[in-house]
Amino acid sequence: MSKNQRSERLGTEKISTLLYQLSLPSTFAMLVNALYNIIDTIFVGFIGEKAIAALSIVFPIQNILAAVAVGTGVGASSYISRSLGANNKEEANRTISQSLTLFILLSMIMIPLILLYLDPILTIFGASPAILSLAKEYAGIIIFGSFTTFFNMIFNNIIRGEGNAKVPMNSMLIGAIGNIILDPIFIFGLDMGVKGAALATILANGISNIYLIVFLASDRIELKIKKDCLRPNFKIIKEIYSVGSTNILMNSANSIVIGFMNNQLTPFGDKAIAALGIMLKINTLVFMPCFGLNQGLLPIIGYNYGARKKVRVSEAIWTGIKYSTVFMILGWILFTFFPEPLSYIFTRDSELIDLTVDAFRYNAIAFPLIGSQIVLSGFFQGVGKALPALLSSLLRQLGFLIPAAYILPKYFGVIGVWLAYPVSDFLSIFLTYIFAIYVFRVLDIPIYYKKIEKKQNKETKNRES
């Protein structure tokens, strides 16, 4: 298949086939990526619950860094897909070149800034004196080497936006396998503790990046980074962040919420913070199939919207909703009926297990409906309408979750913190549905594509008769 055919098939091939081809590799790779983060926590768990709590404190900072990288990559991917759909390859080439410029600028600005204020940032995110030193050991290395994360996440998303899911899958697998191998060597073999876990992650990302660089320099990619396009182009940067800012703000808001939750759990002890950290790690694993599905949907929606094939856009959305709902129902079953085995993977402490079991069960209450919300947020980004996705996410995180987590513990204790998750989920899901109906109507996209297909088939039969 030629490079042009690979992007053009986004507008012609069967949606379910495209979704399978684009989503399965990224879903599998993201599952492995989430799994190695879980294994990271399992290894650290042998050091003790304070080490798990320390990683839970650092997690929001990692999340902010990842949010900026993923947001940049998703924004660039969306604009590249729309440019290719509109047959504007030069604009797509300029966009991938600008992405390299943004990678350099982000690394030069964010890393020194966070390292300079590391102690107060960790304290704000809930680090108690008992775990501050461990959190600082881990965070120092992770943040210093986060330029490897920036490059990896930005360009994996861009390559996927061209319609190539295999290379991002290979890249993430290389990083995941590398981290799984290096973790025990650095943590136990070299007796580096949490520092070893951080160093293993950075080195694994670096190995993965070498693979990406070789691919980007080859003739196997339709897009090319050009030296004369590296000077900041504010028109393209605006296009990137008009969509990517949604991811950045959504995930940054999530980091603020995690920090707030850590602080809300502080009165209940470091074990409660560790329980939150364990739950969030498995939570990430459960959500990865939906996120991988969304990664596959973005180029399909973006290309077909750019090509004005609106019925295919609708079909892609409903196909995604069907599969994502199945994934999240399976996640609900796992969290509701098997929380004890999940908790036992990380710790043998009975008090920590009890806390984690409650966290799993309450967090999963709204899971069956969340899959559709994720797909609709991806739809907003794919058509370049980031504001609805941004509003529904920010209201969930800041407008619903934080107030609920502030009020409910006063009446239900630590259970109130866990209850805040489903309360905010239900409210934000309802809001997303309202936004989706509005965007469908404004863009004249059929809400349910099968009605259009039936009408077209009927008209065809009438003409033939």
Provide a descriptive summary of the structure in words.
The chain is mainly alpha-helical and 465 residues long. Helix content is 83%, strand content 0%. It has one domain. It contains 19 helices and no strands. The radius of gyration is 22 Å and the shape is globular. The mean pLDDT is 84.
Brief summary of the model shown:
83% of the residues lie in helices and 0% in strands.
Q: How much strand content do the residues show?
A: under 5%
Give the class from helix and strand content and strand pairing: mainly alpha
Low-confidence stretches: none
Helix percent band: over 70%
Largest sheet: none
Count of domain modules: 1
Question: Got a strand count?
Answer: 0
Number of alpha- plus pi-helical segments: 19
Radius of gyration computed on alpha carbons:
22 Å
User: What general form does the structure show?
Assistant: globular
SSE run: HHHHHHHHHHHHHHHHHHH
List the helices and strands and how they pair.
Elements: H1 3-8, H2 15-45, H3 49-85, H4 89-116, H5 118-124, H6 132-144, H7 147-161, H8 166-189, H9 194-216, H10 234-265, H11 270-306, H12 310-337, H13 339-344, H14 350-363, H15 367-382, H16 386-407, H17 409-412, H18 414-442, H19 449-464
Keywords: Antibiotic resistance, Cell membrane, Membrane, Transmembrane, Transmembrane helix, Transport
Subcellular location: Cell membrane
Main location: membrane
